[in-house]
Input
Amino acid sequence: MRMIFRVALLIIFITQVCSCSWLAGKPAESPMRAELPSDQAASSIQGAAERHLPEPTRAAGTQPPTVPSKETLSILIKGDKELNRFERNSHALFLCIYQLKDPNGFNQLAQEKDGVLKLLECSRFDASVANAKQYVLQPGQELNDLRERAEGARYLGLATGYYGSGKEKVTELSRLLQVETDHSGAGVTIELGPYEISRVKVQ
Output
C-alpha cells in the first residue's frame, strides 16, 4: 500500500511540474484593447470629416469693390451771416430742393402769386417731380448733404422762404449735368444771401 501511495504522489508531483513548466513557457496574453482602424478606414473617416468642415471665410481684401448703382448729388448750402434779414435781424430760412424731370411745372408755380408758397410745401405738385427735400438753414451755417440722383431727374429747382416784398430772387432752376462715364455724380453749391439767392452752381 505504501508503495502504491508513493507512486500516486510521484505521478501527481510530475503532473504539477509539467503543468507549471508549460504555463511558464506560454507567452502571456496582452490585455484586450480596441483595434485601430485600417489605413483605408482612416482615410474614409478623414474624408468625411473634411466634407463637414466649414469653408474658410474669404478675406475682406479679396472682395470685389462695390460700384454705386446710381449717380449722386453732393449738395453744399451756404448761408450768409445776415441770412433772411428782416427788421434789422437775421432769421432761419426754409428752402426746398426739387429734382425735376421737366421744368415747366416748377416755372409756372414760381411765376404765380401764391406759387412760391406752394413750392415751399416740398410736395409732388405734378408728375415732373422726381424727388423733393426740405431744409432749414440758420444764419452763417454751411450744410452738406449727399443724395441719390432720382431716376429721370434732369433739372434742379430751388424755392426759398425769404421775408421780403416779393421782388427778390427766391427761386432758381438749374440743369443737371449728364454723367455718362462713371457714377461720381454732380456737385451743387447754393449760396444764400441776406435777402435773396446769391448763386446756384452745378458742376
About this structure: Strands lie at 72-79, 93-100, 129-137, 142-148, 155-160, 171-175, 186-192, 197-202. The two ends are 138 Å apart (CA to CA). Confidence is low (pLDDT under 50) at residues 17-38, 41-45, 48-59, 61-69.
